[in-house]
Specification:
Elements (H helix, E strand, L loop, with lengths): L2 E6 L9 E6 L8 H7 L4 E5 L5 H8 L8 E5 L20 E7 L12 H18 L5 E4 L3 E4 L2 E10 L7 E7 L10 H4 L5 H5 L5 H20 L5 H6 L8 E6 L2 E10 L5 E5 L2 E5 L3 E4 L1
Parallel strand pairs: 2-3, 3-4
Antiparallel strand pairs: 1-2, 4-5, 5-9, 6-7, 7-8, 8-9, 10-11, 10-14, 11-12, 12-13
Helix pairs in contact: 3-6
Length: 283
Amino acid sequence: MTTERDLETSEEDEGARRLVIDADFPSQWFDLEDLIAKTICQAAVFRRECSSTNDLALKLAASADPMPLLVVTDCQTGGRGRGSHTWWAREGALTFSVLLDPSRFGIASSAWPLVSLTTAIAVADTLSEFCSTSSVGLKWPNDVHLSGKKVCGILVEPAHGVENRLVIGVGVNVLNSLEAAPDEIRGIATSIVDETGDEFSPGEFLLSLLRHLEDGLKTLGAGRLDIRSRWAEQCVLAGQQISLESGHHFVEGRCAGVDTTGAILIESEGLTKAWFGGVVRAT
């Protein structure tokens, strides 16, 4: 049974706001009141188990108020990646979505493709805090690596039929050790606990991540985010030979980073071309 609680901030607080929580069960990991009191999120929906937080956020897009809205679960069973990809997650993984109006951060629709890269940078900055002795890398367009393996996936989707609504979906392997994962996953992915041995709470990680995300979105909206230079600092593909499949197109060449629009740059046969979508692999 769903319970709803409206929390009122002190009337003496300038800019007081109504904080709304919709939870079907007490969370094992997340202090929802703390999260929406200390981050950009003004409301939260929690489900003990959820097929996909992105799917739920998209369903709520037309009626959500106030926003940004945090949708989070203790157990995601059917997470989606780009295209037909799925996100493998077990207990202890952090899986959540944020539904927001990008225009409130000054982000025009033309800059929406940069939101995914901005989110990846926020995750990378958070990982650098929690895993200071491990290398953190960015893989275009929506993955974050820890010690050379994927630790986070990001899926940003517009809400169809609803203007100015964007869903940012994030999955981070925090406490979910991949020791029991299928061999094909264990070879390419990792978790924070596997790399560091430290048992950080997913809720603690989420609080820091949402703060970094707020900073990134505001910087992007203000036109101050140098995405090309910032991405180059941790790009795991820079200088490598890669292949890209995009629709009917296939190209091989050297990765020259990303440009100011967030497109990946591939140098092939003496020419450098920007690509805005596709599946990239190191060759």
